[in-house]
Design brief:
about 240 residues; elongated; Anti-sigma-M factor RsmA; alpha+beta; membrane; five-stranded mixed beta sheet; transmembrane; transmembrane helix
Amino acid sequence: MTGMERVPMGPPWSVDLIADLHAGVLPPEVAAQLRPRVEADPEAREILQALDATLEDLHALPPIPMPDHVAARIDAALAAEARPAAPVVSLDEARKRRNRRLGLGGGVLVAAAAAFGIVLAVSPGTQQPSNDAKPAPTTSSANTAPPLALKRDELGSAVGDVLKAQNFGPLETPDRLAGCLRGGGITSSGNPLGISPITLDGKDAVMAILPAGLGQYRLVVLDPETCGPDKPEGVLADTTIKPR
């Protein structure tokens, strides 16, 4: 009916034409002339009444909630989108920066290593000692960084940091986490969107962020010393928030 201004002749009229009239998609001038003629035709009027009844049945249906697994996938995608992307660094630029810091060109560096039988690290800004030197002890930043210190009413402020982490801490494994959640009567449709060790009011704990429907997060804080299957006392906090 797009661009048509002439009123279709009838009866009879096609079901598609009557449905377009019922849906209000015909040009106004065509619909104004066609409706009284359609309503005067018994067969066409029955089709209009059937369409009215169908709409009433649809309006009477209860709202259909989004399946949990779909909501969880959307939440996970939103959480991944919120995580900061790693900066893109040119490989050539990184090599030049490394050589400047070592004070050597790439060819000189390789030649020196071959001549003296030592191995030089190619990581920017680092130089490994010779075989005779005692290596300096190394520490992992993940192990040395202190956990987030939170109070019970500050859990929402840690969402951004915890979403970036997948650190089970003293819980160690997803199975242990699942057992602690089950002990507190907490069900989850998938892996945590984020998990990290924290301290809650000075007590060592683990905070997990679970999907809780579209646009919502469930924040669960567990005591790794007491949580487990059939141990509800191991759940220190359980709240649902909707981030801004």
